[in-house]
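Q: Can I borrow your eye for a moment on a structure tokenisation matter? Would you mind producing a protein record, from residues through to fold? Write it directly below this note and I will take it from there.
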Amino acid sequence: MPPFTVLHVCMGNICRSPMAERLLTLAVQQRVARLPAGPPPSPTLPDELLHSHSAGTGGWHAGEEMNPPAARQVRSRGGDADGFAARKLRSDHIDAADLVLTATADQQEYVVALRPDAAARTFVLGEFGRLLTGVDVATLPPADPTPHAVYARGVALVGRVDAARAATGALPGDDLDDPWGRGDQCFSRVADEIEETVRPLAAILLP
């Protein structure tokens, strides 16, 4: 049930998945900000439409803040890196997610091994972004900036992308490089690749 929930997964939950979490949140916030003003009592808030959160396959960094260069990328693009705390992935995180986006194919396999029934809604992030371009959005439920409409559209979109990947599966180029310890230029490139998926996703959910 609403809000549509996206879980981002990487290894330590301090670099790639936190950037994806906060950059998707930013993309949704930006689209909501462009919506015309609705009737009283108040406009729908972004977090009522979509919940973006993250976890890591390992718990080494549990409780830590986002890695500083990852936080710099989020802030430089207009997002909020404050209040983040790394955590280890648990089964209930997967159970509550409508879409799981992993940084790599290995992490996708980890999620599916933990929760086999999540296979149809678990994708490598780059794979999901690549397949989004082939979805006929006209076949999705009507777009409307309400929690139930965004939820219905998101669940249907995941189903369409799952059907589309049956012909290809994940490709080596779908993985996100691990930028940990590799400097701001690498973090910037990885953040660009994340935005290539999360921005189109937000645009389809809130056209």
User: Anything to note?
Assistant: Residues 59 and 88 are 5 Å apart (CA to CA). The chain has a mean pLDDT of 93. Residues 4-205 form a domain with the Rossmann fold fold (CATH 3.40.50.2300). Strands lie at 4-10, 50-56, 99-102, 122-124.
